[in-house]
Amino acid sequence: MSGHSMSGSPETPRDLAHLGHVEMLTPRIEASLAFFTDVFGMTEAGREGQSVYLRGWDDYEFASLKLTEAPLPGLAHVAFRTWSREALARRVAVLEASGHGIGWTDGDMGHGPSYRAHGPDGHVFEIYFETRKYQAPDALKPALKNQAQRFPARGMSVRRLDHLNLLCSEVEPTRDFLRDQLGMRLTEAIVLDSGIWGGAWMTATNKTYDIAFTRDHSGRRGRFHHVTYAIDSREEILRAADIALEAGVPIETGPHKHAVQQTFFLYLEEPGGNRVEVANTGARLMLDPDWEPVIWTETERKKGQAWGLKTVESFHTRGTPP
Amino acid sequence: MSGHSMSGSPETPRDLAHLGHVEMLTPRIEASLAFFTDVFGMTEAGREGQSVYLRGWDDYEFASLKLTEAPLPGLAHVAFRTWSREALARRVAVLEASGHGIGWTDGDMGHGPSYRAHGPDGHVFEIYFETRKYQAPDALKPALKNQAQRFPARGMSVRRLDHLNLLCSEVEPTRDFLRDQLGMRLTEAIVLDSGIWGGAWMTATNKTYDIAFTRDHSGRRGRFHHVTYAIDSREEILRAADIALEAGVPIETGPHKHAVQQTFFLYLEEPGGNRVEVANTGARLMLDPDWEPVIWTETERKKGQAWGLKTVESFHTRGTPP
Amino acid sequence: MSGHSMSGSPETPRDLAHLGHVEMLTPRIEASLAFFTDVFGMTEAGREGQSVYLRGWDDYEFASLKLTEAPLPGLAHVAFRTWSREALARRVAVLEASGHGIGWTDGDMGHGPSYRAHGPDGHVFEIYFETRKYQAPDALKPALKNQAQRFPARGMSVRRLDHLNLLCSEVEPTRDFLRDQLGMRLTEAIVLDSGIWGGAWMTATNKTYDIAFTRDHSGRRGRFHHVTYAIDSREEILRAADIALEAGVPIETGPHKHAVQQTFFLYLEEPGGNRVEVANTGARLMLDPDWEPVIWTETERKKGQAWGLKTVESFHTRGTPP
Amino acid sequence: MSGHSMSGSPETPRDLAHLGHVEMLTPRIEASLAFFTDVFGMTEAGREGQSVYLRGWDDYEFASLKLTEAPLPGLAHVAFRTWSREALARRVAVLEASGHGIGWTDGDMGHGPSYRAHGPDGHVFEIYFETRKYQAPDALKPALKNQAQRFPARGMSVRRLDHLNLLCSEVEPTRDFLRDQLGMRLTEAIVLDSGIWGGAWMTATNKTYDIAFTRDHSGRRGRFHHVTYAIDSREEILRAADIALEAGVPIETGPHKHAVQQTFFLYLEEPGGNRVEVANTGARLMLDPDWEPVIWTETERKKGQAWGLKTVESFHTRGTPP
């Protein structure tokens, strides 16, 4: 396997603009909502049916998290905004031809018509272009007009949706799907001694990853690992740990620095049972258009995280639904 | 004027990958070199003729700053790497057709053949695709293999080239050139009450700008305002101010936060007379593919910087060559 | 003048333990209260008569700020806790003998009997030993039992009262009073070319100052300059500036670093008209028991603050009452 | 046991001013010296015999670390500066009367005559008053005159000696010795279910501890656990971890936040085999003169550190000499 061939060819269409939103399921909607507004410091943008729409202060779209009541926690769908209407049409054509396609939706409170497809492991992916850009009400208007919403100064004050992490029964098919169907680029990966892929990190932007997916040791399909919101500085992530401690929110691991992607992380469990992360990801960027993916071996990963913290066992086994 | 129309159309070819390097002229090469290595914390990658090639620890290419001895300080050229060979060919065709083109070079110590063109104000722009990726010597090999070079822990330890700022006798022609010839997107601008543009900020990436240019109150053409290197955190930029103070490096203004683009800045004068900046720019990203540019009025800009600091007069008048 | 002789002799009784609280007057009690709770992030501990008692999350006593409604803003009194009952008795004896004494109070909501005295410029100083240590209600109990109160994660989340700054018609008499009557040590001072003192910074602790006082250019007596609350990091003070900007709180100057004492500062105007500061002061400590005070000359002070910011004119003239 | 009675009585003489220096033994003097200068960023102040004297940039005395070549790593002695000559005489009288005294020394390169005593576990304690204040050579003169030395901007750039940690076969006798003979105050402690003390943290200043000592699970006497240097911010301690990683310095545990004392820590092993720590300790101060010590139970300590990290086993067993 040549790492290089895993990257998108330079002339691969770059049709995805960015990760747009995530629909997360929770059996405890009120408790989850309180967590995301009071502890994460997000803002409620709207409600519809069994769902509440939430946003970070720097998310430019209407909402980045759709929280939906359901019997079990997990991921309902993940959505990417395309670069343009034409880009959307191109991706839909590819998805339809591939047999992964589910079909068009009429849109949602926060965006226009979208097209859905099943990923190889059963996760639901959505793409859309028409969106509703957030218009802050007077009480939330920012002082600087190049900002979507007033900085909340409440709880962790998360900035914006950063990335998503899935569990897959097999990593390779989802890697191929995201590369070939959606046009994403591989930046880092874990390849076990057996040759089986343990994890992959892919991007549609200059962030070093917008989505990651790792092997589900339980062998189950289509589960959710975590969603991550960005906070500006490592100092504020340490403060987020203080805030989690005070709020009684379980800290699974961190704050510490990942070896893979060098992300400074803090993993929490929200009351609905889903894993969520706050991280600062912006200092390191993926500017190189023909970046050769970094492949980590099993031996290298056994060294633990960047500064030596051992990866917690639950990280490989706990996903939602449980 | 519609701000919206200033943004690249969604289907504008996105052929530039990122700002690649800057060639800066200095009449005091030894003093400038000492500043960039000891105070900025950059690494010398090579020398050739009257030039020294320098790099930040996270620059993935061979060098991002070419420092060249010359009678007067200023900018020799600025270079962008394209997304692919095909993207380079497309841009060259456009530049040749436009009459801006100068012609091909044989390349340089750090990259392959490049094509040069004159911007409307006389600045020299270069584009290239073939590059030399940095291979750290043993003493500079990093502990984590997803990093170009060991973190230096010396002086300000700047991370990577971030952006460039030019002075223009008129802003509008350079704006049009970068949009139409090079395919960059406008994200923010200052438009004076007279309708004349005071400044523009444009990007080829998910950074909110890779280049800025402001009106030269002296009316001269083709001057250089500053080049900026990224540092990870605001805390480290405050520390950079301490380091500048200890080293006797003149601080022109800052640390403070710009209202435009919200960059946390520190402006210094390197010994050759050029203005240089350290800033942290990664927390705020430009993810929106159809972002409507933010237009600042003259009245708004008179409020000063984000937290009220007045813009120093020299910022509008001092450029290189002086 | 020998700077050295200005320091307390090594065997000077060290009877003051620390700055305990400040009673601040405001003509707009509701607006001031909203500022201190929502923007500063303080907690209301109690109310009595025209006063509200406020505290930072790490203040170990019941309250550190008594906010009292009055026709004009300003300082009602400043209080220091003594090291012991015996220390209190020793200081009271000295104050009574000196003729500065006012007399005993019956105590207040937050502390036991106290003794008050007029400083030479008319400010009211109070000393006490018996205090009420804060007992957090269940909703505010911290996760770690070596902390007074839960971290609020609201607004600036100020930590604790740090220091006080007075305006004096003459600096020297207050310096002598604090040294000779209260046993404080001088750490830094400004002495003008005329020999007149421009300001003095004195401490009763290992902090480099607990009180400062500067010359009132208006020539008035007994005015108040500002009170300062501590925040842990410079990063969080930058964030405090963002929060002030969003809340419409006037920023007088900063964030920047003082040359004197090297404090990283941000000066604000609370709605009642008083100047307040947030600063981080803990990194630099005064450990030396026979520290020779640092005397700054008029020329040195004209250089501005540490990184070159000019001291704003209002800093020398604005005080409360106005 | 009443925790309260463990604190110094309010009228206990406060004769110690602060921790002054530590003499550390190393079997690899050149490698240790390279570590402390290049990685810790300390400055060599002088050499004499088998010893090198080192200092942090904000240590006001000549040196805070005396590094001495010896067959085995460990602690040679720890020294506290007294508040005054009179305070020194008082403590010497007490030590002589107690039978712990060893006798006077003629002083050292960095200070005048000192008196030494054996602690109950065999550690050597030294007290002195006359000291040599650091005079920076021209190349190391700071820009601001209220600072001892230029900020080095090299490696971790540690600020100043912060505290010391000893291993004791029994904690209680050393606790009593430091309280009764030296006049230190207890601020926090671990008391096991058996009633045996597991650790104690004591202070002579407004820092929450200047010395700590924990039970040596090996049962040996007089061993050394670690010495700690202060760094200003948590952000810079994270950076210190990056620097340790790059330099190949073993990270034992951290960065993380202790529950006890809430210190943000990073533990390293210097080449001579001694454990060293960098921490930021200044934000939290011990201002209360009659602080009731916080006693942690065995159950509470089993929860691990503040954010849940389990205490590494080596922390209880590894000391020097090994």
TrEMBL record, chains A, B, C, D:
User: Per the database record, which ranges form the VOC domain?
Assistant: 18-130, 160-281
Which key words are in the record? Dioxygenase, Oxidoreductase, Repeat
MF terms in GO: catechol 2,3-dioxygenase activity; ferrous iron binding
Key word Oxidoreductase present in the record? Answer: yes
InterPro entries recorded for this chain? Answer: Catechol_2-3_dOase, Glyas_Bleomycin-R_OHBP_Dase, Glyas_Fos-R_dOase_dom, GlyoxalaseI/FosfomycinResist, VOC_core
- The membrane-spanning stretches of this chain are none
The protein's name is Catechol 2,3-dioxygenase
Recorded source organism is Phreatobacter oligotrophus
Taxonomically, what lineage is the organism? Bacteria, Pseudomonadati, Pseudomonadota, Alphaproteobacteria, Hyphomicrobiales
